[in-house]
Amino acid sequence: MLGSSEISDANDKQGSLEVTPINYGHHITGKCFYIPAFGNSNWHVHKRAEMTPKLSVVVIVGIMTDDNAIIGELVIRYLIEKKHAKGVVVLGKVRDIPAIRKYNWPIWCKGTTPIGAINTQEDPTPDQMAISSYWENTLNETNVVCDDTGAVYFKKFLSPEKIRHIKEKEILWKQQLDSGMSTFQIVCK
Hints:
The chain is an alpha/beta fold.
């Protein structure tokens, strides 16, 4: 099973969503389902969550949001238990951490706060729509791998040769480290 670090290496060290897990010990992989959150409203999150495909990894992107949480227990429970998402990645903040930990849901985010978003419809600005289009195009037809290191997205196909090369290189590096070589000697020479 390849983790986010190996997938990033195989993807030329690209694709990190720069999030950390709330609950450790999860390793999930699935097709990305993109949901935008505009400003301090999560109305669009609630609406688009209804379309979440089963077994997807939901990636919610906060677009020009303040420091409020984009989602909390209610949305997460809906996505995981009712829509059967494998996990949720939030490029923004999350709230209701005690419940998320209690139920051990697979959630990754940029931070936490007790202050929630408002639930009213707000039309996105042209700048917000431009950012949303960027993210939609970036995440379109990608898969997401999430683990204790973070979350990384990648296009559907990674060459088996490239993945095998990464695995073989890591095995070699561990053998070289065990033989007494320094990390500088192993990686930089």
